Amino acid sequence: MPELRVDGVTKRFDKVLAVDNASFTASPGRILGLLGPNGAGKTTTIRMIAYITVPDTGQVLFGDKQVGPWSQKQMGYLPEERGLYRKMKVGEQLTYFGELKGLSHSEAVKRVKHWLDRFDASDWYGRKTNELSKGMQQKVQFVTAVLHDPELLILDEPFVGLDPINAEVLQDVIMELKEAGRTILFASHRMEQVEQLCDDICLISQGKIVVNGELREIKKSFGRNTILLDFEGPDGFLDDLESRQLVRINVRSKSHAEIRLLNDTRPRVVLDEALRHTHEISRFELVEPSMREIFVTAVTAQQGAEAIEV
């Protein structure tokens, strides 16, 4: 399977520099998480990979050739903005999309029935799209992206509208495609799914790549600087620690906190405060940062810095 390589790509729209000299690689049999806050340049990058727009400088290669109309036929793209015909029957439009990707009519029908059956949706074949729920439409949209068995798959927020059961089914399918050697780009704001699915991470902020590499190595590079705390009792000590700039509270609920240590604060400082002010501590664990913490840290503290290669 070919490798995808984005090499020194820059894209400007009038006075806005959307993507600034971005370079990264997505390998077959691996999932690359393409991440970034709103307006970071992520969608523009995806559109250049999909040959919907072209870079001002740099190049996008799939295998040893620059992307173009030829690569679109080998690519499956699930955009964040959905593109189904609402009054057209599901089976008819999926068959139509398959034929656009080069399948014969009979082969397209065969594959449509296979994929609808895989998603327990065989009875949708003759239904119009506007009769389906948002989650159902999302699964139909996914089928359009994989129907022609693409070598490169771009998934932009693929789990939107899905309940936990259907999200798990879709996740299983994505992992099967990975095991089959497909090159997969996964764009999402749901950091827990990024951690579950992705092998590699590319984080874009203000058009620049600020984190780029293997997920496990990235997490190691940030060190064990996060405390997971489960407790019973008052939680005002967390506000005090944060006001003194000793920690940042990333996640907080009535009896749980995810705490980032700042300014060389030692874990014992947090433990002493928790012991002093709470009734019971059932968990105190020093761990590597979550993907959410890495995202926040990279976007706020490292914004505009050179990419971190690990």
Low-confidence segments, given as residue ranges, are none
Separation, N- and C-terminal Cα atoms? 24 Å
State the fourth-level CATH superfamily of the largest domain.
P-loop containing nucleotide triphosphate hydrolases
* CATH C-level class of the largest domain: Alpha Beta
Query: How much is the average pLDDT?
Result: 92
Indicate how many domains the architecture comprises: 2
Radius of gyration: 22 Å
Q: Tell me the strand percentage band.
A: 25-35%
Q: Give the CA-based shape.
A: globular
CATH topology of the largest domain: Rossmann fold
Category by helix and strand content: alpha/beta
- Strand neighbour order, sheet with most strands: 6-7-8-3-9-10-15
Number of helices: 11
Helix content: 25-40%
* CATH architecture heading of the largest domain: 3-Layer(aba) Sandwich
Order of helices and strands: EEEHEEHEHHHEHEHEEHEHEEHEHE
State the major sheet: 7 strands, mixed
Number of strands: 15
Labels describing this entry:
2 domains; four-stranded antiparallel sheet; seven-stranded mixed sheet; 310 residues; Alpha-Beta Plaits
Structure report:
It contains eleven helices and 15 strands. The chain is of the alpha/beta class and 310 residues long. It folds into two domains: 4-218, P-loop containing nucleotide triphosphate hydrolases (Rossmann fold, 3-Layer(aba) Sandwich); 224-287, 2-Layer Sandwich (Alpha-Beta Plaits), CATH 3.30.70. Strand 9 and strand 10 form a beta hairpin. The longest helix is centred in the middle third of the chain and has 16 residues, at 164-179. It is globular.
